Amino acid sequence: MKVVTSQEMRAIDGQAIEEYGIPGLVLMEHAGWQVARRAWDLLADIGGRKVVVFAGTGNNGGDGCVAARHLFNWGARVRIVLAGDPNRAGPDAAKQLEMARRLGIEVVPLTAETRQKVRLNAAAADVLVDALLGTGSKGAPRGAAGQAVDILNGSGKPVVAVDIPSGVDADTGAVPGNAVQAEWTVTFGLPKVGLLLSPGRRFAGRIAVVDIGLPRMLLERGSREWVEEDFVRKLLPPRPRDGHKGTFGHVLVVGGSRGMSGAALLAARGAQRVGAGLVTVAGPASLQPVFSQAVMEALTQPLPEDPAGLVAPEASAAVLSLSARTDVLVIGPGLSRTPGAGEMVRRVLDGAGSPAVVDADALYALGPGGRWLESRSQERPLVLTPHPGEMARLLDGSVADVLADPLGIAVSRARAWKAVVVLKGAPTVVADPSGQAFINSTGSDALATGGTGDVLAGAIAGLMAQGAAPLAAAVAGVYVHGLAGELAAAQLGPAGVVAGDVVERIPAALARVRGERGRGLSDFQPVAGQGRRGWGMGEVIGG
Fold first, then answer.
1. What is the pLDDT of residue 517?
2. CATH 3.40.1190.20 fits 230-235+243-539, yes or no
3. Minimal CA–CA distance to 294: which of 24, 503, 70, 16?
């Protein structure tokens, strides 16, 4: 499913109206009906019939008035609270407001005199509808709209947001002031970027992406993708039944140091669990007994080390030799951040050889400012897997800057560094040098524990070893890794999950994506003919 900005959605609406002759009132009618349908479902669950629609004077408010009219016709007791001057309403919104009035729906302007009455009405309602501000709104809600947001949030009642919760930036997910906390967000045509990125995703609740009659061809364009199960299934490398360990590739993991041997081992397990035929773990010579006992199925290779048990710079020759005989290199997990380790990393990445997944301490070796990345040749395909702190160092900036625009930063850095960038977070985003971007739909706070990033690096490499292109491996690896975290959380509870629990559930996650067995999670049942996608703070449901 494509993902759009507010400007891109306006362009789609405009084309539907101007080029295809679909009147704006028709689109508004469909949008409001979809909102009413979701609110009615909530009312049925609650067993109540009282609805208050908080409407602005733009098209978002018009959608809310349509919803009010349908809910009224279906038997609900409905009141519209108008936040704004009705004389300044757009033409379509004004028509919808007038139709609602003629039907007998009470319209209450939100003023200083009516504020207490509105507050009591909201508290007495069963469901509230947020139709205050649309996707084009920027900045904190002000005036009557700001007061309405406070009333909605203070009511304690479930809220259905129209297109996007008021106060959430549709392009970035930023919440510069107060914002409506929705139980459902009914968004039209395609999901908006701000619904999927933090902190906006926390305010959206469950998201229904609904059809309002926009031409299908207009919804299939764009460079951003919301990554779903069907999409990932097409990215996974085939598993021929007559394959052997050579068929499924050889991953070399270079990492580990005294006190951090587990990182390299988790990466190795990640590669194994996604199906790599062979895995070799190379690290300081003194750790070879630890490696060989902890991951019995892997090969091990001792590397020259210094007196502190850290990989020495001269280990680069051995790593380059090994890399020439393997298919994919994972470098960095637990390697340490010493100058010697950094020198080894740069020598290896400068040398010819297999594609590489660069993670953790190896990323540290390329900064600050990512100067090595800016100057490198493009001979070796790279997948970079930074978390926000590591990306901030690579940019010589701040974590706050990265979190303010993770999608934009991933895209710009992928272009500048000529590499696939996996910017880990909630959600993780993936970008490639062509400008394509992918927002992952799986994962939860269960992954917020040490070692899960190492598992991810190994999983991506394992898919690459089996023949997946770097971008496909990154997108699929992130999705499967997140789903494995959800499966672990469903069994153990999110707070108790550790990285080893995630890696052991990768096979089940892969089987589910491939359709090789039943889903196995009660939280993933069909809703209205569509699949539910687990998503930490919420979910997205196709309309």
1. 55
2. yes
3. 503
